[in-house]
């Protein structure tokens, strides 16, 4: 049954949260304004790129909340849904930061992220 597919919705919501951050960064920072303009030009978008990326930011935020609440409704534990959402958000954020913005994360970031996820998993086991 679809009730068992809470994990899909939790992972998808985490990915949307990461992309929400990407579009927010493309909208707001001076550093990325050249990149966002280049992306808009390559997509043959004639309007101001920051407006489009702001709309995408709002859209992905709305989609993320919709997917997250669906995962909460279908899952057995809000903690487990949050763990999947957060873990996915960390990984997709790291990947998109590297690919889109050339931001390599230091080993300390990865260690901290791993500890946060591990702590969440330990806390989530109480809900099983």
UniProtKB/TrEMBL annotation:
Signal peptide: 1-17
Assigned keywords, A-Z: Membrane, Signal, Transmembrane, Transmembrane helix
Listed InterPro entries: EmrE-like (IPR037185), TMEM42 (IPR039632)
Keyword Transmembrane helix attributed: yes
Transmembrane segments: 48-69, 81-101
PANTHER family, per the entry: TRANSMEMBRANE PROTEIN 42
Designated name of the protein: EamA domain-containing protein
């Amino acid at each position: 049954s679809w009730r068992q597919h809470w994990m899909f919705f939790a992972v998808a919501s985490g990915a949307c949260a990461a992309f929400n951050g990407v579009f927010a960064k493309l909208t707001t920072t001076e550093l990325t304004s050249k990149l966002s303009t280049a992306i808009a030009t390559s997509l043959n978008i004639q309007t101001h790129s920051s407006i489009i990326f702001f709309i995408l930011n709002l859209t992905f935020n709305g989609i993320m909340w919709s997917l997250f609440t669906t995962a909460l409704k279908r899952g057995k534990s809000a903690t487990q849904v949050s763990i999947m959402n957060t873990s996915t958000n960390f990984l997709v954020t790291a990947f998109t930061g590297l690919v889109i913005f050339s931001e390599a994360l230091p080993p300390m970031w990865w260690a901290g992220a791993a500890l946060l996820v591990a702590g969440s998993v330990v806390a989530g086991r109480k809900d099983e």
